[in-house]
Amino acid sequence: MASYQRICLVHYHEIGLKGHNRPAFETRLVRNLEFLLKAQPVQDIKRISGRILIRFSEDASYEAVCAAEALITRIPGVARVSSGYVCEREIDQMNEAAAQALADVGAFESFKVAARRNHTDFELDSMEINRIVGAHLCEQFPDAKVQMKNPSVEVRVEVIQGASYIMARSTRGVGGLPVGVSGRLVCLLSSGIDSPVATWKMARRGAVCYGIHFSGRPAAAATSEYLVDDIAHVLEKTGCIARVYVVPFGEYQRQIAALVPADLRVIMYRRLMFRVAEAVAGQVGARGLVTGESLGQVASQTLDNIVATNDAVSLPVLRPLIGSDKQDIIEEAQALGTFEISSQDATDCCTLFMPRNPETHAKLDKVREAEALLPLDSWIASILEEIEVHDYACPVVKNTPTDQV
Ligand code: ATP
Ligand code: MG
Fold it and tell me: Of the N and C termini of the chain, which has fewer Cβ atoms inside 10 Å?
């Protein structure tokens, strides 16, 4: 029996809806796939009638193809991946390829064949293909039941110009839009559970993310920085993170703690973080900031305090988790693969110099008055000099190499 080339078809939903932007979205998704699959056994990637076709190398093993597919389903813009084989528009080959595709699935109870013919120049119509391929599979898999409604496997046969694609496996992707179609954002990234999820949500809407992390160094250990680096490596696999800026923030916090009323400290730390993030946004051309805040979750996340921190910057502050429950965020962190990392203990700057009773309903005039005593401009200038840069591989941004710490 001949052995056919392995392929997968990448489906996208939302991109299809974007009217005249569609070619740009599709091209972006193809480029992102090419970049992120560089180390995989892929022969080529191209657009075909509303889908993207990935042809695997002739010698790619089943396991290697499955590993590549697992990566593909995590890439923003990918709604579904259907996997199988390509063969000629010749019914014997289609039968054989269908049997191979079905054998790949492993144990299953029932199946049906669903054929589609994009070009009526093929001599058999879809009903005839269903019948012929179905009969062949019944011979090859005598224990399997044919079932039209909710079969355990749907064997899809697509006949297009010049080739047939036969697929029996299908996996849902993360959906959303390809990274790079929605501009750039600076994401405040702690090593906690929430902010990696918030970053990921914006990445899935097509944004290129620049993380910024405020470390407690030198007043605390650098543990949170290692955790943020691990988190960035998880995000890097999806192509959404270009860079993480690390700010040694401990000394500034110490000074704030000495200079402002204890109950306003947390708001002051956060206003300074936002200002630094806004300055970084200016450098990289980002048009918004992102945080992992969720309404009412902790003292600094009341509406009054959100107003008091927003007041420090003029860029929009996006809070994709504002209406999410912690349990939902935890589940999303587990699916993303950052939960285990975020669950490790680390002193970041949040736990440093914390007052006993932080203000939960900050009054803007009091905040501004207290802040007026701080040498903000010179602090921000020195923070921008001390800031450390870690680059990650991103298909949209070509970073110039910097020292990886
Ligand atoms: P997370 O789980 O994301 O740390 P949290 O529930 O601990 O959030 P806070 O500590 O109030 O909540 O932080 C709220 C948001 O502020 C975070 O989601 C993050 O976006 C930002 N943030 C907090 N601490 C830091 C930090 N050390 N570096 C960068 N951003 C931070
Ligand atoms: Mg935190």
Answer: N
